[in-house]
Amino acid sequence: MISLVVACTMSFHWICEKLTSLFQLLAMSNKNFMCVTCMEPSSSLYQRYSEGVIRLSDCKNCGEVVDKYVEFETVLVVIDLIIHNISAYRHLIYNMKIQNQFRLAIIFLFCDAYDKWISGRAGIYNIYDLEWIFYKSLLQSTLEMCTYVGVVVLCDVMVHGISSKRIGLVSRGTVIGYYGNVAVVFSIIFRLSNEFSYRSVTQLFIFISHIQIQRTLFPNLSLAMNTAVVAIGVLLSMQSGALCRHLLEY
């Protein structure tokens, strides 16, 4: 029992470290900030008085600090993301700038593809067959992610019209919602890839992440509407993945 607790603790610590390293790819933007409490635009996050001395800016609308996460260690931001604190999502999407969007997307894709590959390799020992299964899994994961991002971007175009800047923001934010894919480490350590409970919890976690991202990107839409968009996107992505898998069987 003690060894199981230690293993779980080490796994959680590893995931926090990995997510921390991923989100350290982010750097402060210099304009278009948002209050993480009320979503009121702000011209600054803090005032710098001297080297190492800053004062966080207050929101003119709600009176709270614009972004409390400015002074947080990255691992604390990651923990708030894991517990789905919407303020952390707002900080990540609006008050930070992704320096390498493509790298994040690739990492999340490979994590999901590896998870699919583990499930699909049962009873197969030929190295060439295993390699082909991984390629199919990677293609399936890519198609699923692109389908979901496309649904959210289409929703944005319907709500806000066509804007390259807005589409870029929505695409980046939506990809971040897949950060739960790095939980594949649990399936590797505890051999959970075929466990229904593990897959259910993982998919539920990612689904809630997408809802929080959706609420952050579309604050004027109701919770029910945002949840419906996420549900439609997830269903269509699953259908596209199933179609891809079916076509590759021939």
UniProtKB/TrEMBL annotation:
Superkingdom of this protein's organism: Eukaryota
Annotated compartments: Endoplasmic reticulum membrane
Transmembrane regions listed in the UniProt entry: 175-193, 217-238
Keyword hit for Transport: yes
Cross-referenced Pfam families: Arv1
Membrane topology: Multi-pass membrane protein
Keywords on record: Endoplasmic reticulum, Lipid metabolism, Lipid transport, Membrane, Transmembrane, Transmembrane helix, Transport
Primary location group: endoplasmic reticulum
Keyword Lipid metabolism among record annotations: yes
Cellular component per GO, a single term: endoplasmic reticulum membrane
BP term (GO), one: sterol metabolic process
Homology family: Belongs to the ARV1 family.
Known role: Mediator of sterol homeostasis involved in sterol uptake, trafficking and distribution into membranes.
Protein name, per record: Protein ARV
